[in-house]
Amino acid sequence: MSDTSCASVATFDTCPDVSIPMESPLSVAVNQVSMSTPAPAVSQESQVQFEEKPFLGHLILRGSAMVLGEAVSEVLGVSLPSQPLGLVFDASGQRSVQWLSPDEWLVIVPSGEEFELENRLREVLGAAHFAIVNVSGGQTLIELSGDKARELLMKSVTYDVHPSNFPVGKAVSVAFAKASAILRRPSETRYELVLRRSFADYCYRWLVDAGEDYGLGVTR
Amino acid sequence: MTQTNRLQQGGRIDRSRTLSFTFNGKTYRGYDGDTLASALLANGIDIVNRSFKYSRPRGIVAAGAEEPNAVVQLGSTEAAQVPNVRATQQGLYEGLAACSTNGWPNVQRDMMSWVGKLGGGFMPPGFYYKTFMAPASMWMTYEKYIRKGAGLGRAPSENDPDIYDHLNQHCDVLVVGAGPAGLAAALCAANSGARVILCDEQEEMGGSLLDSREMLDNAPAGQWVTSTLNLLAGMDNVTLLPRTTANGYHDHNFVTLHERRTEHLSDTAPKLRNHRQVRARLHRVRAGQVVLATGAHERPLVYANNDVPGNLLASAVSNYIRRYAVVPGNKLVLSTSNDHAYRAALDWADAEREVVAIVDARDKPDGDLVQQARAKGIRVITGSAVIEANGTHRVTGARVAKVDLERFAVTGPVEELVCDTIATSGGYSPVVHLASHIGVRPTWREDLLGFVPGDVKGMRPAGGSQGVYALGDVLADGAQSGAEAAKASGIASVVELSLPQAEVRQESPACALYQVPHEKTTLRAPKQFVDQQNDVTAAGIEVATREGFESIEHVKRYTALGFGTDQGKLGNINGMAIAARMLNRSIPEVGTTIFRPNYTPITFGAIVGRHARELFDPERYTAMHQWHVENGAEFEDVGQWKRPWYFPRKVNGKLETMDEAVSRESLAVRNGVGILDASTLGKIDIQGPDAREFLGRVYTNKWAKLAPGRVRYGLMCKEDGMLMDDGTTSCLGDNHFLMTTTTGGAAAVMEWLELWHQTEWPELQVYFTSVTDHWATMTVTGPDARKLLSEVTDIDLDKDRFKFMDWLNGKVADVPARVFRISFTGELAYEINVQANYAMHVWKTLFEHGKKYDLTPYGTETMHVLRAEKGLIIAGQDTDGSVTPEDLGMFWAIGYDKPYSWLGKRALTRPDTARKDRKQFVGLKPTDPAVVLEEGAQIVFDKDQAIPMSMQGHVTSSYYSPTLASGFALAVVKGGLERMGQKVYLPMPDGQTHEAEIVSPVFIDPKGERQHV
Known about the structure:
The complex is a heterodimer.
Chain A: H1 27-31, E1 49-53, E2 57-62, H2 65-76, E3 87-89, E4 96-101, E5 104-109, H3 114-125, E6 131-134, E7 139-145, H4 149-156, E8 170-176, E9 179-185, E10 190-196, H5 197-210, E11 217-219
Parallel strand pairs in A: 1-11
Antiparallel strand pairs in A: 1-7, 2-5, 2-6, 3-4, 4-5, 7-10, 8-9, 9-10
Chain B: E1 14-23, E2 26-32, H1 36-42, E3 49-50, E4 57-58, E5 71-74, E6 82-86, E7 97-100, H2 113-119, H3 127-131, H4 139-149, E8 163-176, H5 180-191, E9 196-199, E10 215-216, E11 219-220, H6 221-233, E12 238-241, E13 244-250, E14 254-260, E15 278-292, E16 296-298, E17 311-313, H7 314-324, E18 331-336, H8 342-350, E19 354-360, H9 368-375, E20 380-382, E21 384-390, E22 397-404, E23 409-410, E24 415-418, E25 421-425, E26 428-430, H10 433-437, E27 443-445, E28 450-452, E29 459-461, H11 471-488, E30 529-531, E31 536-537, H12 538-546, H13 552-559, H14 572-583, H15 587-590, H16 604-608, H17 625-630, E32 634-638, E33 641-646, E34 650-651, E35 654-655, H18 658-671, E36 674-677, E37 682-687, H19 691-698, E38 711-717, E39 723-733, E40 736-741, H20 746-759, E41 767-770, E42 775-781, H21 785-790, E43 807-812, E44 815-820, E45 829-835, H22 839-850, E46 856-857, H23 860-869, H24 905-908, H25 911-914, E47 919-926, E48 938-939, E49 953-961, E50 966-974, E51 983-987, E52 993-999
Parallel strand pairs in B: 1-7, 8-9, 8-15, 9-12, 15-29, 17-25, 18-19, 18-25, 19-20, 36-46
Antiparallel strand pairs in B: 1-2, 3-4, 5-6, 5-7, 10-11, 13-14, 14-15, 16-26, 21-22, 22-23, 22-24, 27-28, 30-31, 32-33, 34-35, 36-42, 37-40, 37-41, 38-39, 39-40, 42-45, 43-44, 44-45, 47-50, 47-52, 48-49, 49-50, 51-52
Helix pairs in contact in B: 5-6, 5-11, 7-8, 8-9, 12-14, 18-23
C-alpha cells in the first residue's frame, strides 16, 4: 500500500497484501443455492447464459483524448477508441478501454492490475490535467451469451441492440429497466453489462425473471 | 346445442377441431378458427348484452374492433377475469368461459330494462347530471347505484396469475395492418432491405382479403395472402406480429403494440417447456417510418330500432359468411348508400338463404355489383331506405320507405318487409384513430364522405385508411407507401414490387346517408342509435345541440358519444353528421373529436410489464446487505436504497418493538459502541488543480485553507440561498478531495456540480467521479470505539495524533482502509471506508472483536435520534427548500468574505432572507416528558386564539430520547433564535394541545466534548 496523501493527488491501493475473502455484488445471489430463489442452472435448454466476471480492475479516466491518448497507448498497449461509443481491447482481450463521454473513459483490466496501471499512467501523464479514479469496488461486469441474449436485452434496455446499430466494438450507457447500465458488444456472440454495485442485484433479478422464457442459466 | 347457422362448406375454420365453450353459463360448440363472436352467431345467440343506459337487448353488429355490443367478461376463474373483451376479437379455445358484462339477472330478462322502457323518454342526455345533482352530498350514494346498474364488466378480485412484459423494438418501417395495403407495403419495404415490423390485430393476417369475393391473378385473394406471408416470414429483416394491436401512436413515431400471445390458447397462459409464458406483451416500437394500413370501418345507418339484435353491418355479414361459414340469419334486407355493400347480399344468396330485398338510397345505382345482384333476381328497391326495424329481441321485419335525402324526409308510403336480419352500410370511415393520437386532426374528404388522417411526420396512410378502396388501387397504394417509407428511412435503392392483377369493377358513386329520416320527428320516432355502446341516440344529439352545445367536443361530453372503450369507431361520423345537420353546418365545420389511446382496451398487465412486485422499483443494496438480512434487520427505503432501520432482538422470546430496539441501540452508542452501515452516503471524488476553488464556489463556507488530512463540514445552497445538501468533504491532497452527500441527494449533487462546471465555469480544471458504490462505509461510534478499532487496525488512534475531523490511511482487519474521524452521533466515531468487495470481511471482523464490547448494530432510526439529540440537521427532513443556513443558525458555516462569490450568496443578502421573523431552527422540549410531538405538527404562540390560528412554525424531527428520558424535537419557529426559553403550543387534531419550550437544538453535550475524547 502506498500512502501518497502529501502529494497533490492521493492514490490508494485498495488491495490487501494478504488473502481476504471477497464478495462481489452478486456473490450471494449467484452462489447461495440455499436462497429461496436459487440461481437457475445452465442446461441444454438454456438459450441465454449469464456469467458474472467479478473483481476486475475498473478505472475511470477523465481527460481529453489529446491529453490521455499517448499515455494510454504506451502504458496499456491499446489506443483510446477513435470514435464515440467505441470499445477496444488489447491483443489478449483481457484489457479494454471504452469511450464514455468526450472526456471520460472506462478501463477494465484483470483483477489487481488497477493500482499499478494508475500509478504508471500518472507517471507518464505528469502535470497534465486529468483524473484517474479507481471504481473497482463500485461496479461489476456480467456477460450474456446465447441465441436469445439479444432478445433478452430488448426486454431490458430501450437502446437499439440490432447488429446494424450495435456492432461489435460498440459500448453505450443505457437505461436498463429502471436502473442504468453500460452495455458493451465485445464480440459477435457475447454482450457485457457493467452494473453499479448497488443496482446489480436488481438487474440480476430482472434478467433472471426476463430470461425465464429462454431458460436462462447462471454460470457459477 | 347445434350450430344452426353454420354452413356445411367454406370458411377458414377447421371443422375437424370442435371446441366447447360457455357463454352465460351455457355450453356451446364452435370450431378452431372461430372467434367467440362467430361461434355465438353460429349457435344462433341473438342477445349478447344489455345496453349501458337503457338496458336494451343487444346483439353482435360487427366482426372486428369496432364491435360496440359484444363486449364480454372473460375468465373461467376469479383470478382469470378479464373485462371488456370484444367477442369479435377473441379467438375461440377449448373451455373458454365468457359472460355478458351487463344485464342482471341475465341478458334475456333484465331487471333494469324497465328503466329503459319507462324511463327512456325521461332519460335524455345529461339525465344523470341534472337528476342527481342535488343535494351534492348525496352524489356519492347515487353514484354507487348508478354504477352498479350500468358498467362494462369488472376487475378480478384476485391477483393475476399471469406474467407480462415489454419488448423494445426498433425498425425502419412499421406497418400497421396486414390487409392488402399493409402486406404490399411490408413486402416492398422488406424487399428493399428495410427492417420491417408488420402487426395486425386479428387472429389471422390478411385483413379484407380473408373474406373477399375478389380474385388476384385469377386465384382467390386468400392465396396471395398465404404466399406473401410465407415470403415475409422467411426474411430476417421482418418481424411479423399477429394478434397485435397498435394501441397508441405517440410522438416521434413511438408506437406501442399490444400483443396477445396466449389469449387464443386459454384464459391464463399455459406453460411452455416448463417455463411460464408471457400472456401479453407491449412492444415499444421506435419506428423510423410508419405505414398506416388500418383500413376502413363500415358505417352503419342510423334508423329507428337499429339496435335490435339482427341489425348488422353489411361487411360483417360478408365476413361471417365467408371467413367463418356462419350465416347470422335466414331472411336478409340490405339497406345501403353504396355499391360495395351489395356483396353482403351476394354472399347471403350464395349461402342459399333468402335475400328479401336490397334497399338502396340512390335513385339509379348501376355498378357491376348492382347488376350482379339484379342478375341473381334479387329485388332492388331504389331511392329508399330501411327507416325502422321491427322486433325487440330479434329483428322481425324492416319498414322501408322512399326518402328524400336533401330535405331529410320520408316521401313515400312505408312497406313492411318480413326479415330477421337487416344489414346496413352508410359508406366507409377510414380508420384514422392512430394518426390522431398525437393530436393531428383528421381531414374531411367530401369525395370520400369520410375523414382521412392529417399530416404526421414520418407517417403514411395506405389503402383504406386514406380512402382508397378498389383492390387494385389498394395494393398499388400499399406498395408505393412501403417504397416511400423505405426510401425515407434511408434506403437508397428501393426494389419495385410486382403486384398481383386485381379485377377492375365499375362502381356507381355513393350517396351521403347517415341518419335515415323517419315519418316521425327524430325526437318522437323510436330510438335511432348512433353509438350503441354508450346508448347515444340521434335524438340525444339533437337535444344536445338544442341546449346550446355547439362544439362537437361538448356534444361528445354531454351525450357520451364515442366515450370509453368504444372511441367512436362506428358512431363518430354519424354523430357529427347529425350535429352538422342540426346546426346547419358542414361536417368539417363541426369538426371531429380527438381519438385517444388506447385504440382498443389493453390489459394493465401489458402496460406494467415486468415492472411489478419485487421488480417494481430498483432496490439498492450495500455490500453488507446480506448480513443485515441474516441479522433480522427491518429495512427503511431511503431513495431506492434499502437501509437497515433497526435491528430488533429477541428478548424473552419476544421480538423487540421499534421503540425498544431504538432505545437499546441509542444507549449502546452513548455508553458502549455501536456500528452503522453508512455506505449509502453519496461520495464524489474530485480531482484537479481547481478543485479547491470549485468547492469554495459551491459550498457556503471556506475551503482555501483545509489541509490534506483534514475534513470539513459544508453546506450547499441553490442559487436562491436555500439549503440543498450538506456533508463532509475531506482534503486528500492539494488537488484531491472526497465529498460526501446525503444518501438521497447523491445523484442530484453530482449533476449540480457537473452543471455548474460545464455551463458556468468550464475554465476550472476539475473532474468529478462518483465513488459511492466503490467504498463501503462503516461507522464505529461510542465511548468504546477506539478500544474496539485499535484491536483491528495498524492506525495510531492516539487522540492527539488522530484528532476529530482528521482522516488517515491504514489497515482495518488487514484491508486497506481510509478512516475518517467524524461524528454524526456526537460520540467518538470512526468512519471506516474500504473497497466494497472486502467490506463484508471487515464488518464481520469488527463483530468478532466487538463481542466483548457488545458491539451493537444500529439502523437509521437510532441514527436519527442520536443526531437529533446533537441538533444535527438532515437536509430534506429539517429543511424543505425554504430554509437558509442562517435560518439554521449556522452563521459559522457561511463565508461572506470569500474572495469569489458562491452559490446562494447573493440571495442571502436579500431583505427577505435577512428578515428577523423567518422560521428559524430551534429545539423543542415538551413540558410533559412523556410526550413525543408529531413531526409536522404546527406551532402557535397563543393557544387560546380562535381558529384560524396564526401558525408560527412546525416540528421537523421528533423522537423519544432514552438518554434524556424525555421526548424532544427539532422545529422551525418564526424568530425562534430570539425566543429561547419561551413557551409554544401545538394544537392537535384530537383536541389536545401540547406545550413545549423553545431550547437550543443541541440537547446533549453542548460543548462537543464527547466526540473529542
